[in-house]
Structure formats: structure tokens, C-alpha cells
Amino acid sequence: MFSRAPKKVNRNNSNQTLGFQGEELAVNYLKKKGFKIKKRNFRTRWGEIDIVAQKGDHTHFVEVKTRTSDAFGHPLESLPFYRLERLKKMALLYAAQFSLMENRLHLSLLGINWAGPEPEYFFVEDIIS
């Protein structure tokens, strides 16, 4: 359905490697859905926004969660409240810094379940109202 997935990571590899590969999958997914990738790994003192993507006048701040099993829950269940609060701060900082306050801003979550041979994608465009 989407561009060929990178080779699945060995479970002995680090979470950082899985995270990077998950972000690569996420970028490809978002591009196929018509998003333009504006920035990756935007770092602030509160943490990092995985992907900033644009579609029309809508700016999405995308948190990517990748899982290779259900042992620690579904990818969409893995965003704690404190992380959500930090994501809001980082999104507002980015929007102010790049003059995007007039745009529609969205905090989004892209969960990738890579338990099988092909990844499954779960995209929630607005994780808060």
C-alpha cells in the first residue's frame, strides 16, 4: 500500500533504532496522505516534536509511536498526559517561531503497529480538542 517498509528491526536492537525506522515509515505515510513535511525532530527544552507536517493551512505536530508487539500496549495508548502537555508547549513555540499562529494547529498521533510483516498505521489528527 505504501512505499516498501524498511527491514524490520531485530528485537535486540535499541528502541532508538526502532523509533528512527518508525519515523521513516510515518514520513512516507504522511506524504502519501498529501502532507508536506516541514520539520523533523524539532528540539526544545521540553523535548522533541517528531514531525511537523502541513496540509493546506493546517499544521500538524505529529508524535510517532511504534511498537513491535502488544506486550506494552497498543501504540495509541502510549502517550502519557505529561508528554501531551509538553507537546502542546512545543507546538505553540514552533508556531510562534515560524509565524504559524494564523494556521489551524493540530496535535496528532501516528501509531504504528509493526507486530506483523507489514506495519499497520493508526492516525489520530486531533488528540485533544
Beta percentage is: 25-35%
Arithmetic mean pLDDT: 87
Q: End-to-end distance, in Å?
A: 31 Å
**Structural domain count:** 1
Please report the number of helical segments. Answer: 2
The largest pleated sheet is described as: 5 strands, mixed
- CATH domain class: Alpha Beta
**Which fold name corresponds to the CATH topology?**
Trna Endonuclease, Chain: A, domain 1
- Give the low-confidence spans: none
What's the arrangement of strands in the largest beta sheet? 1-2-3-4-5
Main structural class: alpha+beta
Could you estimate the helical fraction of the residues in percent? 25-40%
- Annotation, overall tally of beta strands: 5
| Backbone shape | globular
The CATH architecture can be named as 3-Layer(aba) Sandwich
Polypeptide structure, described:
The protein has 129 residues and is of the alpha+beta class. The protein has one domain: Trna Endonuclease, Chain: A, domain 1, CATH 3.40.1350.10. The chain has helices spanning 15-32, 81-97, and strands spanning 36-44, 47-55, 58-67, 104-113, 120-124. Strands 1-2-3-4-5 form a five-stranded mixed β-sheet, with helices on both faces. α2 (81-97) links the parallel β3 and β4 (104-113). The longest helix has 18 residues, at 15-32. The chain is globular, with a radius of gyration of 14 Å. The relative contact order is 0.19. The mean pLDDT is 87.
Identify the notable features of this structure and list them briefly:
129 residues; alpha+beta; Trna Endonuclease, Chain: A, domain 1; five-stranded mixed β-sheet; 2 helices; globular
